[in-house]
Write a structure and sequence with these properties.
This protein has 320 residues and is of the alpha/beta class. A five-stranded parallel beta sheet has the order 1-7-6-2-3, with helices on both faces. A five-stranded parallel beta sheet has the order 10-9-8-11-12. The mean pLDDT is 97. It binds phosphoric acid mono(formamide)ester (CP). Phosphoric acid mono(formamide)ester binds next to α3.
Length: 320
């Protein structure tokens, strides 16, 4: 595996899920695979889960790990070509990326959407520069449009907790005070579309996800109707993807608190499990009682981030 952005990069889900369970039984099953190999994890944005779980995964595989917070201690990076660098940016990404590649065998990158240009974000402009110029396998640790390590962990979690062969999985938009990227809902939709589940997406008008990710998933604008009979409720906020109104890209266009997942929402489900990738804002996305209920999977979901990252790094090491 030379890049990891999309579900097809991982190969068949049934095989990947088997590997996940093998690693879950013994996190160190492949502890020699990464001997004398280095994982470089580059963060342009904050992280708790991705930072810790990916480091842990690399250590499970016997790798050395270097973590770089670009905005704390590195030179400030220019990302545009053709600019006169007379401002506060001391180094260009086009030199920095191949230099980073000199010190690593695999590179993970976290770089959020900037919301300055939909075209730049949806072409994964920053991540693509790492793929093209680092000379190393590169995986997204949440980039402008996707968060595949999270989606794979979500798939593992649903597979572990499903009570029927084809559960109903509902991804619901929920309110948030700030504009958040579409990476998590994009990837979740993309991965669920390939999984053996009955997948429904619900959100207010204007929050339609990009067709390349939502595909043929059922979209229901009545949240309560969408949640009826759900086996899994996956809550997430995202800002306007700009599909119907490009001028609204990256904006908060609804603060409708009736979409907050509370006990009344969960009451119409099939005693559904509640899921969220975290971090989550209580009282906005979900109420305390729902996230603290025995049916909340937010902690097992986070724990599976170590498993998904271990499987992905294993695939990358095997391709070196
Ligand atoms: N879910 C997730 O990616 O969490 P972090 O932003 O803390 O890494």
């Amino acid at each position: 595996m030379k890049t990891f952005l999309y579900p097809e990069d991982l190969g068949p889900f049934d095989k990947a899920l088997q590997e996940a369970q093998e690693i879950k039984k013994n996190h160190y099953a492949y502890e020699s695979l990464g001997h004398h190999r280095t994982a470089l994890l580059i963060f342009f944005n904050n992280s708790l889960r991705t930072r810790l779980s990916t480091q842990k995964a690399a250590m499970n595989l016997g790798m050395n790990v270097i973590v770089l917070d670009v905005n704390q201690g590195a030179w400030k990076l220019e990302t545009e070509r053709g600019v006169i660098m007379d401002g506060d940016k001391s180094e260009h990404l086009l030199e920095a990326v191949p230099v980073m590649g000199c010190y690593a065998d695999v590179i993970g990158v976290r770089t959020f959407a900037r919301f300055e240009s939909r075209e730049d974000d949806y072409s994964e402009k920053i991540l693509r520069q790492f793929i093209e110029h680092s000379g190393r396998p590169v995986f997204s640790m949440e980039s402008a449009t996707v968060h595949p390590l999270q989606a794979f962990a979500d798939l593992i979690t649903i597979d572990e907790y499903r009570k029927k062969r084809r559960p109903k999985v509902v991804m619901t938009w929920a309110p948030h005070p700030r504009a958040l990227p579409q990476a998590v809902p994009n990837s979740f939709a993309q991965w669920m579309n390939r999984a053996d589940v009955d997948f429904v997406v619900t959100h207010p008008h204007g929050y339609e996800l990009d067709p390349q990710f939502v595909g043929n998933a059922r979209v229901e604008y009545d949240q309560m109707k969408a949640l009826e009979g759900a086996d899994f409720v996956y809550a997430k906020n995202w800002s306007c993807p700009g599909v119907t109104r490009p001028e609204d890209y990256g904006k908060v266009i609804s603060r409708d608190m009736s979409w907050t997942v509370d006990a009344a929402h969960m009451a119409v489900t099939n005693n559904a499990y509640f899921m969220h990738c975290l971090p989550v804002r209580r009282g906005m996305i979900v109420t305390d009682d729902v996230i603290e209920a025995p049916t909340s999977l937010v902690i097992p979901e986070a724990a599976n981030r170590e498993i998904s990252a271990t499987v992905v790094l294993k695939h990358m090491l095997e391709s070196l």
